[in-house]
Every structure is written in structure tokens, then in C-alpha cells.
Amino acid sequence: MTQCKSGLFKSWQIKAWQAGALLIATVVATVGLGNFESAGAQQKEPPPSREAVQYSFAPIVRKAAPAVVNVYVRSRVQTFNSPFADDPWFRRFFGEKFGEPSERIMSSLGSGVIVSPDGLVVTNTHVIKGRGETEVRIALADKREFDAKVIAQDDNTDIAVLKIEGGDGHFPSLQFEDSDSLEVGDLVLAIGNPFGVGQTVTSGIVSALSRSEMSRSDSQVFIQTDAAINPGNSGGALVDMSGRLVGINTMIVSKSGGSVGIGFAIPSNLVRVYAESAAAGRKVERPWLGAKLETVTREYAEGLGLARVAGAIVTRISDKGPAATAGLQPGDVITKVDGVEVSDARSVLYRLTTKGVGQTAQLSVIRKGHPVDISLALLVAPDPGKNDVKNLSGNHPLDGARVSNILPGIEDEMNLDDTEGVVILSVRKGSAAQSLGFRPGDIILAIGNTEIKNVADTEAALTERKRLWRISVKRGGRVLQLQVPG
């Protein structure tokens, strides 16, 4: 799997294909189906008119291309000239800034799409994310350049929103199309800046919908296309035949790093949620389900007597959560959301996220072999209490970690299986916790001989200085044992 940082598009002409279609139609009309003897016996004829072979994507490109921009990112990273500068154990004893300081400039290039005339740009988080101080610059198709600031970014969905600074407030922009209206086989164009060669357009079709196997987020699905996407295309536009935005190109499957005809785009319906939230100055609020879902496997389907190996099975219900209030039960299999079939657990959460908080979703459920309709109110999770979340600091290995009790909303958002322990929400850059490799999503189970059940247990266990810190951490279903000198 390769994340593309720009998109290469060779302009594919479809004239030959269309000419062939016209030729077949002409022959059928002339001799009739019953008179065909063999392919070799068919009489070949030229297209009936010049206009018949002059079909072109040019009008669509003229409409869409001005709103697709190049995104240049420069990061100033301070490094220290020491052979041990990258060793976390060395930095722990001798400090973060051992050796001679030097500054290094890191540059990257990707694509973006202007989605409002006032200069709101959507792109991928991996395009604009750098280390240290970062500068972002936008280059338009008409060669104008502007600085831009990052107003929102989400690592899980790989969506970032930028705002162009300056200009007249009348930038070319693309309108969002309903990505649910796409069908497999629809023609699409991908526009971006592959390999930094300049704006390029490629054509293809929608190869598949609702792909979720490669997603890092539990609420994300992708549009699959064979339109050529290459490094540098990330953040670029996938448009339909009306020149409307149906997706943001984000990654490819490739062994070589170049396009092999398997590319993926984030659906416009999810991108629009983040763009509108960023424009309004608020964070995207994901609906709180209050239930644990798993994708229906072949074993599940056989055991439950399901006709299709698709859907999401409810494995756990949180007390007093929206799912419990709606009447969902463990063992229920969700097959549709608002009448749209769902293939797996991610598809269900994607549908709920794009539906939006404050709405009501209609779930089609199979319960013990019988269909059941459920109305689910989409609510936000309750806010944590003042003692539920803490920023840890001090002379200990978890300095710089922000931790939380495993609350129902956090359990849903971070897709956790555990209900006890504390989870790391974030890790401050340059902190002891970061240097030791702690990550968001890690669950602290024990510190020394103290079993950790909540934030208060964590704070108490860290107050006493130790000659050797022993910390049990659960990550990805595995329990890791960390030992750090005090």
C-alpha cells in the first residue's frame, strides 16, 4: 500500500473505443444479427462522420482543473550532530539537544482542491503534516501563489482543510457531488500534480465502492478507481462527468510506487463533513453509537444462518447508550443504514458519521433470523468529567502523555475493546513519553505492582520515584512490558 503525495495522469483518449462502438452499431444495423458468420467476415467501415470521433473530456477539464492546486510544504527541523542523537535512551540521560545544532529544511509536494470561492482547500493530512515549524504554500493552475494556514486536520481519516491567505475572495472552486450517487463503472477523471511534473489529468472508471480493508479509521471507506494516480496526486480531485467533486485521491496499491490501476479516493460526502465543520470553526462530532461492532465473517454468517456474508454484528452494548435506547441487542446484524446496504462495521460507522449528529438513522437489522427496523438517534458522547482526563508531567516515563479513563465515547472513537485501564489520547512532541515510544491508543494496565483502573490510580503510581519503572501496556491486542531506569 502506497500513500501518494501527488497524482500522475496520462490523458487517455477514448476516441478509438467510441469509433469501435459506432462501427459495431453500423454493422448490426446493416446486416442484422442473424447474418453474422465470423469476426473475420465483418466488413470494416470508417465512422460515419468526423463529429463521431471527436468526443473529449476537455470541457470537463476546463471546468474542474482551475480549482485543483499544488500544495507545497516546507518544514524547518532542528537536528543535532551526534551519532546518538536519535537514540531515545541516550537523549533521556544527556538531553534532547546534545551535540551541535543544525537546521534542515524538509520539503514535500502534493495536491489540493478549492471547495469554496473564499479559498477553502481540502487535501490529505499526510500531504501537509511535517516535523517542526511548517509553512504551506498554494499554487493555482493560473500560476498565482499564496500562503495558506492549516485550520483542521485529522490523522485517522487523512483529511486536512486549509485556508488561502490573501487573494480577492473569488477563487475557482469545485462543488461537492453526492458520492452515494456513484456506481461501479461510472467514468471519472483524476486531477493532480504527479511527481511534481505539473497539473495532469487521467481518466478511468469507478472500479469498486465502499472499500474499507486498508482504512486506518473505523469510520472510513474508499472509492476505488483505475484512473492513474501516482505520488504527488494525494489531495487531488476525483471528478465525475459533470465536473463535480466525488472524492479526494489519497493512496494507491503498488509494489513499484507507480500506478498499476488500483487507486483510492476519500468519498466527497465524508470530505464535505470536515470542510463544513472547519469553515464553521468547529471540530467534527462523530455520533456516539454506544455499541461494539464487528464485521460479519463467513463463520458468523454460517452460524447465524445469514444469506449474505455482509453486514455488522453487534457484539457489545453500553448501558444507557444510544444503541441500548434504540433497542439494539447483542447478536443483531445491521444490514442497511437508511436503506443503503452495508458490507462491514466500518461502512455502518461511515454512514452514521456522514449522516451527522442530531439526525436519526434507520437501521435494518436481522435478529434471530427475522428482520427488525431500528430508529437510532445520533448523539454526541457525554463530556468527560474534570478527573477523567489528565496531562501527565514529572520525572517519570509517562511525562508528556495525555491520558483518559475509558469512557463510552472514547471507547467508540478509538475503537477500544477494553473498559478498564487508562488510554493515552495524545503524546507531546519531545517528551519522555514520545521518546520511549508511547502512542495514542496505548492502554496502561499496570505500573509496577499497581493495577491501573483509572486516572487516579495512574497519578498515584507515578508519584513515588523508582529505580526501575515497570509498565504494562496493551497495544493492538498484545500486552507489552516496558522497563525504564528511574
> What's the CATH class of the largest domain, please?
Mainly Beta
Which stretches of 5+ consecutive residues score pLDDT under 50?
5-41
- Mind telling me which CATH architecture of the largest domain this is? Beta Barrel
What form results from the Cα inertia axes? globular
Say what the CATH topology of the largest domain is.
Thrombin, subunit H
The major beta sheet can be summarized as: 7 strands, antiparallel
Helix count equals 11
Q: What proportion of the residues form beta strands (DSSP E)?
A: 25-35%
Number of structurally distinct domains: 3
Structure described in brief:
By secondary structure, the chain is an alpha+beta fold. It has helices at residues 15-31, 58-64, 88-94, 125-128, 268-279, 298-304, 322-326, 345-355, 408-413, 432-435, 455-463; strands at residues 2-3, 68-81, 100-116, 120-123, 133-139, 145-154, 159-164, 187-192, 200-211, 222-225, 237-239, 245-252, 263-267, 291-295, 312-317, 333-337, 340-341, 360-367, 370-377, 389-391, 401-405, 422-427, 443-447, 450-451, 468-475, 478-485.
Walk me through this protein's architecture:
The chain is of the alpha+beta class. It has 3 domains: 1-284, Thrombin, subunit H, CATH 2.40.10; 291-377, Pdz3 Domain; 389-485, Roll (Pdz3 Domain). It contains 11 helices and 26 strands. It has helices at 15-31, 58-64, 88-94, 125-128, 268-279, 298-304, 322-326, 345-355, 408-413, 432-435, 455-463, and strands at 2-3, 68-81, 100-116, 120-123, 133-139, 145-154, 159-164, 187-192, 200-211, 222-225, 237-239, 245-252, 263-267, 291-295, 312-317, 333-337, 340-341, 360-367, 370-377, 389-391, 401-405, 422-427, 443-447, 450-451, 468-475, 478-485. Strand 16 and strand 17 (340-341) form a beta hairpin. The model is unreliable at 5-41 (pLDDT under 50).
